[in-house]
């Protein structure tokens, strides 16, 4: 009777009950769906602007390739290092390590390495501080003079803007680019009308909480959101739930505004107002690009723009591009997320990439 006589207390009780249910729900499913992965070392590194990145080491699991440089794997937006190391069966990191490569995974400030001040999580700051620090540290820890760089989605975009500027080209021997657009398009064309919206009105996305909240039901049916993020039909049962709990992170407002500003205008990647791609014309690093035939985040033509620019002013640059679809011999028409964890990604992505970056740079 007391609660029914006092509506405010009743409302508070309902809020507390709902909050408790959510907390218990998250705790249960996070515990059930967490897939731990072991690392030889985990190191937190402060950046010069007061943020931080993390490096995780997966040492070579087989002898014979000691002469080859280490491999740095760089994740995309809205995810952490598990982008490249999701599950023992779907891990580019473990695939390369099993073949004898010394593998390092970076967690950028956007992947929750910096959990305190989201205003520091900008695309330009990651170009200026995070990527160069990761490259320098891997070279210092291994004593190598060069490394091989593999970027997924934003991880490749960061290299577009870093190589030859904040990252010396001579530090990078070979490059793998997986689903990294050089032209960014909004999911709905109408959003271009928001190009005059002040950055302060562009919110961040708390994807980590949302992903964990719905992970248990994420494979019950396929929604338009599934199709935008990945080809859900190209992902084994259980893998989407694993990704939502282990890999997904938020997109801080500052980074969201940076990417939105590019998408709402002409789509060109810019850092401090300058286009990132033109200097790539003088790059000579061998590179292999992957694009998903039905990728809506990084369509093949958006990836091809970077492919065509790369080394365009140089003669004989070794550059290749693979569009993963049934018409080109892949097992499925790949979307975006399944480039990392698709049913046959070990065959269609990991292995061709391994062969390419294992080759001599001469």
Classified in CATH, the superfamily is Alpha/Beta hydrolase fold, catalytic domain
CATH class assignment: Alpha Beta
Which geometry do the CA atoms define?
globular
Order of helices and strands: HHEEEHEHEHEHHHHEEEHEHH
The amount of beta strand, in percent, is 5-15%
The overall average pLDDT, rounded, is 91
> Major β-sheet, in short?
8 strands, mixed
Query: Total helix count?
Result: 12
CATH architecture: 3-Layer(aba) Sandwich
> Which structural class is indicated by helix and strand composition?
alpha/beta
Strand order of the largest sheet: 1-2-4-3-5-6-9-10
Please give the number of β-strands.
Answer: 10
- Helix fraction, binned, reads 25-40%
Number of domains: 1
Please tell me how large the radius of gyration is: 21 Å
- N- to C-terminal separation? 83 Å
Low-confidence stretches: none
Say what the CATH topology is.
Rossmann fold
Task: Please characterize this protein's 3D structure.
With 362 residues, this protein is an alpha/beta fold. The protein has one domain (34-358): 3-Layer(aba) Sandwich (Rossmann fold), CATH 3.40.50.1820. The chain has twelve helices and ten strands. The chain has helices spanning 2-5, 7-33, 92-98, 123-142, 154-162, 207-214, 224-229, 239-246, 253-264, 300-309, 338-341, 345-358, and strands at residues 41-46, 52-58, 71-74, 103-107, 147-152, 172-178, 270-271, 274-275, 287-292, 319-324. Strand 9, helix 10 (300-309) and strand 10 form a beta-alpha-beta unit. The longest helix has 27 residues, at 7-33. The radius of gyration is 21 Å and the shape is globular.
């Amino acid at each position: 009777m007391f609660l029914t006589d006092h509506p405010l207390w009743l409302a508070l009780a309902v809020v507390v009950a709902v909050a408790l249910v959510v907390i218990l729900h998250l705790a249960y499913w996070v515990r059930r769906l967490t897939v731990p992965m072991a690392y030889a070392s985990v190191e937190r590194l402060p950046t010069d602007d007061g943020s931080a990145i993390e490096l995780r080491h997966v040492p070579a699991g087989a002898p014979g390739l000691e002469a080859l440089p280490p491999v740095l794997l760089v994740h995309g937006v809205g995810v952490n290092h598990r982008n490249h190391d999701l599950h023992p069966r779907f891990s580019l990191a473990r695939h390369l390590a099993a073949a004898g490569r010394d593998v390092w995974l970076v967690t950028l400030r956007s992947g929750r390495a910096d959990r305190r001040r989201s205003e520091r999580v900008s695309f330009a700051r990651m170009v200026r501080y995070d990527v160069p620090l990761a490259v320098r540290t891997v070279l210092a820890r291994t004593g190598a003079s060069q490394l091989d760089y593999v970027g997924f989605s934003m991880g490749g975009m960061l290299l577009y803007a870093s190589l030859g500027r904040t990252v010396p080209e001579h530090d990078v021997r070979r490059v793998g680019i997986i689903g990294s657009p050089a032209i960014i398009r909004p999911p709905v064309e109408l959003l271009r009308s928001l190009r005059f919206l002040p950055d302060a009105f562009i919110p961040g996305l708390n994807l980590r909480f949302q992903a964990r909240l719905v992970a248990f039901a994420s494979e019950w049916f396929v929604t338009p959101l599934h199709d935008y993020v990945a080809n859900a039909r190209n992902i084994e049962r259980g893998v989407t739930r694993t990704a939502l709990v282990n890999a997904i992170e938020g997109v801080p407002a500052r980074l969201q505004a940076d990417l939105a500003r590019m998408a709402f205008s002409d789509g060109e990647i810019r850092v401090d107002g300058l286009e990132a791609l033109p200097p790539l014309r003088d790059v000579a690093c061998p590179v292999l690009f992957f694009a998903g035939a039905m990728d809506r985040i990084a369509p093949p033509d958006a990836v091809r723009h970077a492919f065509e620019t790369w080394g365009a002013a140089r003669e004989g640059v070794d550059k290749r591009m693979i569009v993963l679809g049934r018409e080109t011999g892949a097992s499925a028409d790949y979307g975006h997320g399944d480039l990392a964890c698709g049913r046959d990604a070990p065959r269609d992505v990991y292995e061709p990439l391994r062969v390419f970056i294992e080759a001599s740079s001469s």
